[in-house]
Automatic annotation (TrEMBL):
<dbReference type="Pfam" id="PF00860">
    <property type="entry name" value="Xan_ur_permease"/>
</dbReference>
<dbReference type="GO" id="GO:0012505">
    <property type="term" value="C:endomembrane system"/>
</dbReference>
<feature type="transmembrane region" description="Helical">
    <location>
        <begin position="157"/>
        <end position="181"/>
    </location>
</feature>
<feature type="transmembrane region" description="Helical">
    <location>
        <begin position="126"/>
        <end position="145"/>
    </location>
</feature>
<keyword id="KW-0812">Transmembrane</keyword>
<feature type="transmembrane region" description="Helical">
    <location>
        <begin position="364"/>
        <end position="385"/>
    </location>
</feature>
<protein>
    <submittedName>
        <fullName>MFS transporter</fullName>
    </submittedName>
</protein>
<keyword id="KW-0813">Transport</keyword>
<dbReference type="GO" id="GO:0005345">
    <property type="term" value="F:purine nucleobase transmembrane transporter activity"/>
</dbReference>
<keyword id="KW-0472">Membrane</keyword>
<feature type="transmembrane region" description="Helical">
    <location>
        <begin position="83"/>
        <end position="106"/>
    </location>
</feature>
<dbReference type="InterPro" id="IPR045018">
    <property type="entry name" value="Azg-like"/>
</dbReference>
<feature type="transmembrane region" description="Helical">
    <location>
        <begin position="285"/>
        <end position="308"/>
    </location>
</feature>
<feature type="transmembrane region" description="Helical">
    <location>
        <begin position="228"/>
        <end position="246"/>
    </location>
</feature>
<feature type="region of interest" description="Disordered">
    <location>
        <begin position="1"/>
        <end position="20"/>
    </location>
</feature>
<feature type="transmembrane region" description="Helical">
    <location>
        <begin position="201"/>
        <end position="221"/>
    </location>
</feature>
<keyword id="KW-1133">Transmembrane helix</keyword>
Length: 483
């Protein structure tokens, strides 16, 4: 007979953990949502590491453009502006919205600001357009129009938006890691993407991604708490060791190397450099309104899709797919757009990488306190914050993309083609056009047209007719000479 001690079984975390029943637990409703402080902390850490690249990437996008006078924005000031607005908006969303949705300068809208607005006006003018777009978003929230639009989205399309986001973040992960790369147009090929570089997987960075993805899935299968965060930290350490031994030049934006001087002094020179209406005097009222409309449309629907997808994945919605307290979340989102412009960091919006934290179990705004706090710390420790290579962080996006698909795809009514086809269009157009907004717009238009074709025009909410018309106008703007 064996005399060895029985294997220890991990004790499951109790809702709320050691803080159950305390003021922290009650305010953030941690126990009520079946979470624990430990899960929220892990989720906040995972989200930060998954999106910390924005501290480096946003300054590159904005700093590479010139305004009408040929002026560039200072890179150091852009780093400060990006980290500051991310910290402010993320903390605000956590405290007021109480959802694990982190905020930072939105990719896509920053390109609009850099490539469409700035060349035709000054930088303060361009940032003023962003602030005005944020004010309009808050006005739509205050009047109930934004919530009405969200509530008008049929259940099947809500699930399709979540799935589309899952596919989109998977593609983001594959591209950012170097596992998939774009084939240059000069190649004259009909295939836009390829495996690795030249159709082959080569180099240590890609190996870090592959090992990270396998480790993440293995830990998920084993139901190990903190699977995503363990993988990010473990792969970062391994990448640092490899880089120290082999001096790899191809890590991308962030190199896994301990910085010689981990402390940096923030430069707040761009904060408040805004001219609200100066842009209208340079481009005219109609063009100025169209510029604000373009920023507004991107911010409005990109955030809407992200909020719906993440809240659904975090199980913060009811049986009908609606999220209680959504107006607070939407108002903070609008305020964050304006704050991003006021800080000269471009529009701040909900980040899809928040799904990494949700995958770790984050269910409340306390996770945002962790993420936002780290962004605040990164104002002084930017070299450390940008030390995690994308190859170590992107496996989290692959894993979370799978989790979203596995939870949502079976809930769509595939027998009803007036829902199934728009859902199909929505979920595929997000990754294929590299835009959440495009996926939503094309899905909405398809849904409205098919319901009309089926003679079910009464089954289309009025808000869906209006939004579909707005999207149709948006897509026709270039043909009408309005861009």
């Amino acid at each position: 007979m064996s005399t060895s001690a029985p294997a220890k079984v991990p004790t499951p975390e109790k809702p709320g953990g050691a803080f159950a029943g305390g003021p922290l637990d009650r305010y953030f409703r941690i126990s009520e949502r079946g979470s624990t402080v430990a899960r929220e902390v892990r989720g906040g850490l995972a989200t930060f590491f998954a999106m910390a690249y924005i501290i480096v990437l946003n300054p590159i996008i904005l700093g590479s453009a010139k305004d009408m006078y040929g002026h560039h924005l200072d890179n150091g000031q852009l780093v400060t502006a990006t980290a500051l607005t991310a910290a402010f908006s993320t903390l605000l969303m956590g405290v007021i919205g109480n959802v694990p949705i982190a905020m930072a300068a939105g990719l896509g809208v920053n390109s609009v600001v850099a490539l469409q607005l700035a060349p035709r006006m000054t930088w303060p003018d361009a940032m003023g357009m962003v602030v005005l777009a944020g004010f309009v978003v808050m006005l739509l929230v205050a009047t109930g129009l934004r919530e009405r639009v969200m509530n008008a989205v049929p259940f099947g399309l809500r699930k399709a938006i979540a799935i589309g986001i899952g596919l989109f973040i998977m593609l983001i992960g594959l591209v950012d890691s170097g596992f998939v790369s774009r084939i240059p147009d000069v190649a004259q090929t009909t295939v836009p993407l390829q495996l690795g570089t030249g159709g082959h997987l080569t180099g240590w960075p890609v190996l870090i991604f592959i090992l990270g993805a396998l480790l993440t899935f293995a830990l998920i299968v084993r139901k190990v708490p903190g699977a995503i965060l363990i993988s990010i930290v473990g792969m970062t350490v391994l990448a640092m060791i490899i880089n120290a031994a082999a001096k790899i030049p191809s890590w991308g934006l962030t190199v896994p190397k301990w910085p010689g001087n981990p402390v940096s002094t923030p430069d707040f020179g761009l904060v408040g450099q805004v001219s609200l209406f100066g842009g209208f005097s340079r481009v005219g009222v109609l063009t100025g309104i169209l510029f604000v409309f373009t920023v507004l449309l991107s911010c409005f629907f990109d955030a809407m899709g992200t909020i719906m997808g993440i809240s659904d994945e975090a199980k913060l919605t009811d049986a009908e797919g609606y999220m209680p307290g959504i107006n607070r979340v939407l108002f903070v989102d609008g305020l964050s757009v304006a704050a991003g412009g006021a800080g000269s960091a471009s529009a701040t919006t909900a980040f899809v990488e928040s799904t990494a934290g949700v995958g770790e179990g984050a269910r409340t705004g306390f996770a945002n306190i962790v993420t936002g706090g780290l962004f605040a710390v990164s104002l002084f420790l930017t070299p450390i914050a940008t030390m995690v290579p994308s190859q170590a962080a992107t496996p989290a996006l692959i894993a979370v993309g799978f989790l979203i698909l596995s939870h949502s795809v079976k809930e769509i009514d595939w027998a009803d083609y007036t829902i199934a086809i728009p859902a199909f269009v929505t979920m595929l157009m997000m990754p294929f056009t590299y835009s959440i907004t495009n996926g939503i717009g094309m899905g909405f238009i398809t849904f409205t047209v098919l319901r009309l074709a089926a003679g079910r025009y009464r089954d289309v909410p009025v808000a869906m007719y209006v939004v579909s018309a707005v999207f149709a106008f948006y897509y026709l703007m270039p043909a009408l000479g309005l861009t």
